[in-house]
Specification:
Chains A, B: Keywords: DNA-binding, Transcription, Transcription regulation. Chains A, B: It comes from Gordonia sesuvii. The structure is a homodimer of 207-residue chains. With 207 residues, chain A is mainly α. The first copy, chain A, has 10 helices and no strands. In chain A, α6 packs parallel to α9 and α7 packs across α8. Chain A is globular. The interface between A and B is medium-sized, with 19 and 19 residues. Chain A binds a DNA duplex (30 and 30 nucleotides) through α1 and α3.
Chain lengths: 207, 207
DNA sequence: GCCTAGATGTCACTGACTGCCATATTGGCA
DNA sequence: TGCCAATATGGCAGTCAGTGACATCTAGGC
């Protein structure tokens, strides 16, 4: 029974993901066309061919239909970080974890990368989305200490959080520079991003 | 004419500030009593003796009636930073600016500090307020580069922003530790905060 | 081809926030 | 003192995000 329901869930999960992507694409087009504020959820739902109520079954907020982690990057990051020893936790550890995720993100052909850049541009241009994206980063930086070390002291928890926040800042800056960078004549967008990320990390060290 | 209106504005501004404080106090009590989400703006307005419409003339959002900078700290910080040379802009510059603001905040007797701690605790306990507070910090980190250097390059603008974000992170951590610290037997709350802040800055250097 | 879980739609509702217009207050001036 | 004009306030109607409840529909497994 459990196996059956899980397999069914697997099929349904794929469908759900497909619907999510459809809604997101409809939303992105409307936001790019008319702006985030001027677009209502009802319009997005209509464009995606679902009811407004269904929209909120897929995304908890209007912002989240842009920011939702469709490709499981958060999970990939956590997997990378679980291998790290919480006692000797340094900035380099998260940096390499992020690096691995960004590299894998490069492997998955440019369609995903293009969508990401589209989203990133929209986020940069929309205050409400910037705030929501920021909230996501911060949520991460508060969840990860709990996930990493259970027996660590309060002092080291703060240390871990600081390290994570700085790593998040690096990623944010890298994504921003990447989104602002010239689109013309880009053969390897993901690699490009990786180079920008490394550069930002290097600059961070010269603080 | 201009002088007159400014003097009138001065008197009215003081009244407006008084009303703002009244609304904020009413809001704080209700939030502490029933929680942020469970409290409606209508209830706050009623408790403060104004109409709901007037509430939104004083604060743009429900969150802002907690976070609004009643004491002009942002302005004080900007004043401290204006004296800095944008070309040789280091983390220590913002740190000392924040330090000066926090110290001045200590001078103004403990009533202000107590209110701040109250607010800080509420913010920590309320996700919606945490996000809004975060947004404020980030807005600052995007405005200050423009304010500091007009002729600086894009590269140094990013550098300035990074420095500011790190400084903001230090302040956030310090405020959090301060709010979480024991209330019992505190003679000098502001000085206490200053010590915590210095400690956080020192720890940040060991990243 | 039925049976049930999960997906979807509809409806009604709350609550934040805004624009508009009428009214009340108040500081400054004749 | 009493009027004028700027400003503050209230009331009202409306938009829109988000939620709960209930009915219906769909599709996978037997």
């Amino acid at each position: 029974m459990i196996d059956t329901s899980q397999q069914v869930g697997d099929l349904r999960a794929r469908r759900r993901n497909a619907t999510r992507i459809e809604i997101q694409q409809a939303a992105l087009e409307l936001f790019e066309e008319n702006g985030f504020e001027a677009t209502t959820v009802d319009e997005i739902a209509a464009a995606a061919g679902v009811s407004p109520r269904t929209f909120f079954r897929y995304f908890p907020t209007k912002e989240e239909c842009v920011l939702f982690d469709l490709y499981g990057f958060d999970e990939a990051l956590e997997a990378c970080l679980r291998a790290v020893d919480p006692e000797h936790f340094a900035l380099a550890d998260i940096e390499s974890a992020y690096r691995a995720v960004i590299a894998g993100f490069d492997d998955q052909r440019s369609e995903v990368a293009a969508n990401f850049k589209r989203i990133q541009k929209l986020v940069l241009a929309t205050p409400a989305l910037s705030r929501a994206a920021l909230g996501r980063y911060t949520d991460k930086s508060r969840q990860l200490p709990d996930l990493l070390g259970t027996g660590t002291s309060a002092r080291s928890r703060v240390h871990i959080r600081m390290v994570i926040e700085i790593a998040n800042l690096e990623v944010q800056c890298a994504f921003e520079e990447w989104a602002e960078s010239d689109d013309t004549a880009e053969d390897e967008p993901g690699h490009e991003l990786l180079a920008i990320y490394d550069d930002v990390c290097a600059r961070m060290r010269t603080l």
